[in-house]
Amino acid sequence: MALVEVQVPDIGDFDEVAVIELLVKVGDTVKAEQSLITVESDKASMEIPSSTAGVVKELRVALGDKVKQGSVVLVVETAGASAAPAVSAAAAPAAAVAAAPSAAVASTSAAATTGPVEVRVPDIGDFKDVAVIEVMVKPGDTIKVEQSLITVESDKASMEIPSSAAGVLKDIKVKVGDKVNIGDLLAVLEGAVSAPGPAPVAAAVATLAAAPAAPVAQAFSPAPAQAPVATAPSAPAHNPLGHTAGLPHASPSVRKFARELGVPLNEVQGTGLKGRITADDVQAFTKAVMSGSVQTKAQAAKAPAPASGGAGSELGLIPWPKVDFAKFGPIERKEMSRIKKISGANLLRNAVMIPAVTNHDDADITELEAFRVLTNKENEKSGIKVTMLAFLIKACVAALKKFPEFNSSLDGDALIYKQYYHIGFAADTPNGLVVPVIKDADKKGVLQISQEMAELAKKARDGKLGPADMSGATFTISSLGGIGGRYFTPIINAPEVAILGVCKSQMEPVWDGKTFVPRLMLPLSLTWDHRVIDGAAAARFNAFLGQILSDFRRVLL
Ligand code: CAO
Question: CB burial class (10 A; 0-12, 13-18, 19+) of residue 483?
């Protein structure tokens, strides 16, 4: 056993680079060449590998620390025979970073030219066949000296390849996915002005040496001693923000991880230093997408219906007609209320997404209405007015108990059967439609329901309903009975699966088998989600509701 201090190797001209990621922790077993930390300058990021295999005993750096060549990253206990004291070992520098590296090299060395100039991949150390992961320019762009043209990535580092010449980009010779090597033709510039001198301006290039497995970051001198010609001198040092804007802020290994999972990295929120995306962020994003709590942009694009405000094209429909109404007469434009905007968006989604069917029926409420009138007379002093809607709520609870799928919600391919009975009722307010909820209606009597309904309806009209008053409904009733009409087709209040619409009752001649008799008939309109409920079940639900309403004693059964 031996304790070995692993140091930052020669990382070229980088001085004091920030540690932005710790890739191992104390107790981890690391292999030689395994990445230990990621460091980042304003030009490039790179992973620092271990020069030796062993168990991590001590971490000597923390996030945000600045390191340079020779800084001790951590202490590793190796399997070797020698004992402490700890010996120091830096990953050896790159075997060959032969010539002074250069920016993407223009094939003419002239300080200025107007002819086409070929820009090639400069000496990027021992990199071989590195993948192009981003092309940052397009034909027609005016390119400045030092402007990054492409980003390449090895398994340990990503770097941008800058142009050594200025001019208009005539042709870009590589595309994402291509593999490039030193000397490969990248681009052709026209009216180009190349940087003068033997060591042209270049953005940083991080390189990873092949043998003996050490990272070498080679940063080029930021500016030529001699000012370049007029068209290029103000070329800024590479702007890391631009880099971030084009490419998500993440280390090469995280990028690779994201690619393997098919995670769109530019949609992941980074929680690392300076918003950097970590492997944990990628994992958390994947989990969120799998659980359905987050949608990728690609998924959203495939989603069936916009909730609001769509012009129609999202559904493949012809656009909404745009008419200049003022042409035909005087007009006044008024913004819709907040409630109307919110309920409109929900109604649209529910109307579009639910395969809804409505069954119409009539219930004989002659005796029930007589009982209601009597009850109100008897309870006159209590101040509680019993309305037909309160009886309907009780009747619906009985029907929901008998037909539990009407009290369910869809959850993917499963149904959630709720064992509580919270009944929403649509209330008309000056600002629009709201749906307060009578909680646990199965445990309450008609008088209590009437009282709560009156209180909630008042709160609704006064605009004082809170979210708790309007949430948790398992089934909704929309009553237009106090207003009029015969039948209508209410829209289901998702994630519920059915809604009962009620219209104004009226006396009708009903055949009793011998003769027509006058009966008070209540029109019922039941809308149901055909994914959950079948037509026969809906007809049975309505029929059962009719039986209860015609003889309310059945509620007790
Ligand atoms: N048939 C005949 N008369 C009825 C009736 C029915 N089905 N339902 C209620 N009535 C009568 C009541 O008995 C009352 O008569 P009196 O004043 O003579 O006693 C009158 O109509 C008014 O009732 P109400 O509307 O105040 O009370 P309610 O319990 O029936 O309804 C509430 C309360 C809040 C639901 C209602 O005021 C409301 O806002 N309804 C509109 C709901 C709506 O907009 N739905 C559409 C949604 S889809 O766009």
Answer: exposed
User: Which residues, 6 or more positions from 289, have their beta carbon under 8 angstroms from its beta carbon?
Assistant: 295, 296, 299
pLDDT tens per residue across span 165-216: 889 999 999 998 899 988 899 999 987 665 543 333 333 333 232 223 333 2
Calculate how far, in angstroms, residue 402's C-alpha sits from the geometric centre of ligand 1.
26
Ligand 1 neighbours (beta carbon < 6 A)? 387-389, 425-428, 433, 457, 478-482, 490, 502, 504-505, 522
| Angstrom distance (rounded) from CA 454 to CA 493 | 21
Q: Which two tokens stand for residue 308?
A: 């609001």
What b/e string do you get for 348-364 counting C-beta neighbours within 10 Å, with b at 16 or more? bbbeebbebebbebbbb
Dist. CA 492 → ligand 1 center (Å): 19
Separation of alpha carbons 458 and 343, rounded Å: 19
**Half-sphere exposure in the Cβ direction for 192 (13 Å, CA):** 29
Cβ–Cβ < 8 Å for 370, 550 = no
Residue 262, classed as helix, strand or coil, is coil
What is the rounded distance in angstroms from the CA atom of residue 42 to the CA atom of residue 217?
A: 13
C-alpha 482 to ligand 1 mean position (Å):
3
Question: What are the structure tokens assigned to 526, written together?
Answer: 């039941």
Please give the share of the chain, as a percent, with pLDDT higher than 90: 49
Q: What is the pTM of this model?
A: 0.53
CB-CB contact of 45 with 157 (8 Å): yes
